[in-house]
């Protein structure tokens, strides 16, 4: 994956400044005895983020969050994933998302090649 172009304090400021009350973004978190171990964020029909702490990966938490997204967006949704993020691409493919568009990365901040993946929904050939 490309290196982060924003230091942690900028990322925290960005997420801290989100206007969640406006209803534009829908954040969801997964917690256990360790605290918050994963989060996902929807914006319209886009899955903007799905992140699981490395030490919590492989426990089904990401799958549970993705199932939640499918429930919340039964008509389908799209997401962008970096071309080099093979584990994420394989994860999404296992869950029924398909690759729809490849770019050279000129449209993202990182300027890294990425792929638009799509889940077409439970009623259009998608699998729940």
UniProtKB/TrEMBL annotation:
Entries under CDD domains matching the protein: NAT_SF
Start and end residues of each N-acetyltransferase domain: 1-122
One Pfam family in the UniProt entry: Acetyltransf_7
Sorted UniProt keywords: Transferase
Molecular functions per Gene Ontology: acyltransferase activity, transferring groups other than amino-acyl groups
Annotated InterPro entries: Acyl_CoA_acyltransferase (IPR016181), GNAT_dom (IPR000182)
Protein name: N-acetyltransferase
Classification of source organism: Bacteria, Bacillati, Actinomycetota, Actinomycetes, Propionibacteriales
